[in-house]
Design goal:
single chain; alpha/beta; Spore Coat Polysaccharide Biosynthesis Protein SpsA, Chain A; seven-stranded mixed β-sheet; globular
Length: 236
């Protein structure tokens, strides 16, 4: 897939969102104009997330089953019904910790160099101090070390800001409904022998409290899910 400025690829962004009223408008305002449609999946928010996202021009869906993966799958189901399917799907969090304008850097290896899958890696040199908790840093390092050990992977991060060819995403038959979504995608990219790479992306302190790393329960549950996926695939 080579980028043609006269006939650009259709890019759709999926943003899971739970109580992101303070941040979602900022995220949407900074998404590049090259994106064809932005889908915000409201995951049982109790604040004004829906109203803010709609006012900003996003297509808002509601998924009442709690879970990051549930929200992503809801967005994918909507995409599957589009009259013209996209070439590229970008996943982005709604907490404004990423820099949405870097979407152009994420999709460039796909449109220009034939890659199937690109992960935005939150490199230490590009991260704002305190933007990732110690448990996040440790968990990412452990997961990526295990993927390197078992699968010779070159991943250094499980960053949620990522771009993938839509057809390759469908081939993965994604199933995780909670915190294992990102590592499932990376493991299936390895299993399916996708051409993948990481690019460094900036990362800042999120607005609000993390639903995962901000609680002991969330941290433990996420860790169990991530390690579960890795060991599941290591013995296949």
């Amino acid at each position: 897939m080579i980028f043609d400025p006269l006939n650009p690829p259709k890019i759709v962004v999926i943003i899971p969102a739970y109580n992101e009223a303070q941040s979602i408008g900022l995220v949407l305002a900074e998404i590049p104009a090259i994106v064809s449609e932005v889908i915000v999946v409201n995951n049982r928010s109790t604040d004004e997330t829906v109203a803010v996202a709609e006012k900003a021009g996003a297509k808002v869906l509601t998924e009442n089953k709690m879970g990051y993966g549930h929200a992503c799958l809801k967005g994918m189901a909507y995409v599957a019904q589009m009259e013209k399917l996209p070439e590229i799907i970008v996943f982005l969090d709604g907490d404004y910790s990423d820099f949405p304008e870097e979407l152009l850097d994420l999709v460039a290896p796909i449109t220009n160099d034939g890659y199937d899958f690109v992960v935005g890696a939150r490199k230490k040199a590009l991260r704002e101090a305190g933007s990732m908790t110690p448990q996040q840093v440790f968990g990412n390092a452990l997961a990526c070390t295990l993927m390197k050990l078992f699968f010779r992977a070159t991943f250094t991060d499980l960053g949620p800001f990522r771009a993938i060819k839509y057809k390759r995403l469908l081939d993965m038959n994604m199933s995780d409904t909670t915190y294992g979504w990102t590592v499932e995608m990376q493991l299936k990219a390895l299993r399916n022998r996708l051409k993948y790479k990481e690019i460094g992306v900036r990362y800042k302190k999120r607005i609000g409290v993390s639903k995962v790393s901000g609680t002991v329960k969330g941290t433990i549950f996420a860790g169990v899910k991530i390690l579960g996926w890795i060991f599941k695939y290591s013995f296949k």
